[in-house]
Amino acid sequence: MTTPTGPTGRSRGGKVRVKTAKRRTTSSNQWLERQLNDPYVTAAKAAGYRSRAAFKLKELDEQFNLLGQVERVLDLGAAPGGWCQIVRARRPRAVVVGIDLLPIEPMAGVTFFEKDILDDDAEAVLREALGGAADLVMSDMAANTVGHKATDHLRTMGLIEAGLDMAGRILRPGGAFVAKVLAGGGDGALTALLRKQFLSVKHVKPPASRKGSSEWYVVAQGFKGVAAPPVAESTIEGA
């Protein structure tokens, strides 16, 4: 008996293949196929995580002990909330605050703001919600890509700089900053800037990050308590 498969079919090797559809683009089909064959997506659903990205923070924490003693955590670009779930699971008594331009489904023990971190009042709003300086500022923010390497790089750098600027104003001395970067975006000017502000700066690609993806993560620990000036646009690699 033949069982209907809907938009997908399964190959002999067990890999799900997406059938073409008039309303789906090639890129949409490729994304759907990746999702259907991604073990982290399956594991995230089984664990009740809001996104597979939760495993990235989990793996980074296992390597760098980011959440070991944190009491106040700020999540930039928090939607849909997967990273906040990991913080809540590992530090249930910590104050956790998230901000994103997108709406986020409420989560027990977490304060979410649908807001731009560049708003004039963003720092004051976030600091008040945290109840003091943060122990950890984390950012999984990603710019919408256009397929032009230099442009995508600049957009991503802009988000990283915005996140780092916020971290420099809201972190306690000794605190940590973790952020997503593109391959090559963790070198040069950005690394120099981070080293002015933190005692340790590492670049890592956690196992949960897709092998074909250009994303890496920068992990900066031991905030010195002094914010460095922003990177001049002309010094950004790829500009």
From TrEMBL:
Gene3D superfamilies: Vaccinia Virus protein VP39. One of its GO terms (cellular component) is cytoplasm. Its EC number is 2.1.1.166. Residues 49-223 form the Ribosomal RNA methyltransferase FtsJ domain. S-adenosyl-L-methionine binds at residues 81, 83, 100, 116, 140. It holds the Pfam family FtsJ. Signal peptide: none annotated. The active site is at 180 (proton acceptor). It is an enzyme of class 2 (transferase). The keyword Methyltransferase applies. It catalyses: uridine(2552) in 23S rRNA + S-adenosyl-L-methionine = 2'-O-methyluridine(2552) in 23S rRNA + S-adenosyl-L-homocysteine + H(+). The keyword Cell division does not apply. It is found in: Cytoplasm. Keywords: Cytoplasm, Methyltransferase, rRNA processing, S-adenosyl-L-methionine, Transferase. PANTHER family: RIBOSOMAL RNA METHYLTRANSFERASE, RRNA METHYLTRANSFERASE 2, MITOCHONDRIAL. HAMAP family: RNA_methyltr_E. This is Ribosomal RNA large subunit methyltransferase E. It comes from Polymorphobacter multimanifer. The gene is rlmE.
